[in-house]
Amino acid sequence: MGRGAKPLAPGLYFLATPIGTARDITLRALDILASADVIAAEDTRTLRHLMEIHGIALNHRPLIAYHDHNGAQVRPRILRALEEGQTVAYASEAGTPLVADPGYQLGRAAIEAGHPVFAAPGPSAVLAALTVSGLPSDRFLFAGFPPNTGSARRKWLKEFAAIPATLVFYESPKRVGDMLRDMVEVFGPDRQGAVCRELTKRFEEVRRDSLGDLAEQFSGDAPKGEIVVLVDRLRGSQAGPEDIEAALRERLDRMSVKDAAAEVSEALGLPRRDVYQAALKLDREE
What we know:
CATH superfamily of the largest domain: Tetrapyrrole methylase, N-terminal domain
Radius of gyration: 23 Å
InterPro entries: 4pyrrol_Mease, 4pyrrol_Methylase_sf, 4pyrrole_Mease_sub1, 4pyrrole_Mease_sub2, rRNA_ssu_MeTfrase_I, RsmI_HTH
Number of helices: 11
Keywords: Cytoplasm, Methyltransferase, rRNA processing, S-adenosyl-L-methionine, Transferase
CATH class of the largest domain: Alpha Beta
Shape: globular
Strand content: 15-25%
Structural class: alpha/beta
Oligomer: single chain
Strand order of the largest sheet: 3-2-4-1-5
Organism: Sedimentimonas flavescens
Number of strands: 10
CATH topology of the largest domain: Cobalt-precorrin-4 Transmethylase, domain 1
Helix content: 40-55%
Number of domains: 3
GO molecular function, one term: methyltransferase activity
Main location: cytoplasm
CATH architecture of the largest domain: 3-Layer(aba) Sandwich
């Protein structure tokens, strides 16, 4: 146990760590890092540096690398520590574990073995980007990283076209220009979006514009740094027959014609009567 730290209840603790600014770590996360019997990390060098910045000594405690490539080999060691009643802290390289970062399989294994699992919430690029984007935050969908190739990416993006929520994506700076061009093709050039780069860091940048203009802005050299791309929900004036049909079909599988029409009408800002007639037609065709 770290000097001056309070004992922790046995279990697995997922820690959110800064996405850029080291002081964004929470006091609770520091307490857990100081107290845990075993510390695991996606990148041990990054976590050790963060601990040094905040004056937390390792004090001969195990510091275990755990990531997507070695998970199957390392999970048994962590589970043994939990079985022995030890406290285990796990941190991804930056941000919140399990959110486009390792941790899901570890969490599932701990839960299935009957061990307590705790979250020490904190920094997340998803929430930081949503906060500064200027786009609606009442409902959002985090979609993670898109496929690397153009054809697969466009097919994948179509799945989100009619979802009535702000869409949040991660993307490599090398591919963000291609992704935005595909978004223009799939979502249309007038949908509003935002591209957030290097959030919380020295060269933080947020560009808010239509997808068409954003695609043009990122058509040149690839930018540097971590990228989050956000897209506004489909609006009534932008919704074509295919968009309305896709939104209705998704809902008709799980709700009545009346409820599906009401939800799509509200989500897309369209007259309820028109959407209800379209829903009736689709229901008859089924």
